[in-house]
Amino acid sequence: MDPPVRTRIVQAYSSIKDDLPVGVNPVVKVPLSIWTHNTKLHINEIEPMDTGGGGTAGGAAGGTTYNQLQQLIAQEGRTRDSSAAALRGWLETWLGAELRKLNGNICRIAVQPPRMATPGQVDANLFRNGLTVERTRRNGQTSLRYRSAVATPADSRPAKLSKYRNIGPAWTEWIDGIDGNKPAKNFTPEEIRACKSTYSRRKSLWDLMAKLVNSGKAPAWVISKIDHHYTGSVLNIAAAIKQDTIMNSLHEDLCIVRAQ
User: Fold this and answer.
1) What is the mean pLDDT of the chain?
2) Residue by residue, what is the 3-state secondary structure of the chain?
3) Which of 25, 120, 137, 152 stands 20 to 30 A from 171 (CA)?
């Protein structure tokens, strides 16, 4: 028993114990009706039946009320169960119909012949992925070249070539730029024409370096091999490489061996 209930009982008994006859129990047991409704617990006291004639009628009425209450509770439970069963059946029917519709659509798509996307659809899909495509048709064949759709910021550094006595800075000048200048590989046609003499003479050296680095060689290894097989100024080395490339007489260290 909860302490508050016990305390109330003790206080009530203390207030009337002096007036109670000897041997009388002040606690009376009464019948209770207990049921649940909408997840709530209900407890009602059932009126006791009288022994007299009037009491018998009252007791009968009280019993009838209790029986009716029990019947109402049972009827409500049956109604709730039938409603849940009806809802469950409706859901099963609806889900089954939707599933059959989905399966039918999948089967129709599966038997349809494949369709190629139109050029417009291809361009739209590529643009959503940040790409653009350039189409070139030659000899009846169409070649595609993909580019980024995001414009890269223009390099505002000066387009100048530095002076150096050995080929050590050549690769850095081509790929990254040195002395605060723009990389030589990014020179525009107008910028190349402004330094055409030096640019064209160094181009054979840059091309050989780029080919070897792109094949997997380290830039330091490429520079050391070129410096080992060629001597003289940077322009003389570039001229010798150009001549050997034309004559197909480059040293085997500077050639790319293709796997058979």
Assistant:
1) 79
2) CCHHHHHHHHHHHHHHHHHCCCCCCCCCCCCEEEEEECCEEEEEECCCCCCCHHHHHHHHHHHHHHHHHHHHHHHHHHHHHHHHHHHHHHHHHHHHHHHHHHHHHHHHHHHCCCCCCCHHHHHHHHHHCCEEEEEEEECCEEEEEEEECCCCCCCCCCCCCCCCCCCCCHHHHHHCCCCCCCCHHHCCHHHHHHCHHHHHHHHHHHHHHHHHHHCCCCHHHHHHHHHHHCCCCHHHHHHHHHHHHHHCCCCHHHCCCCCC
3) 152
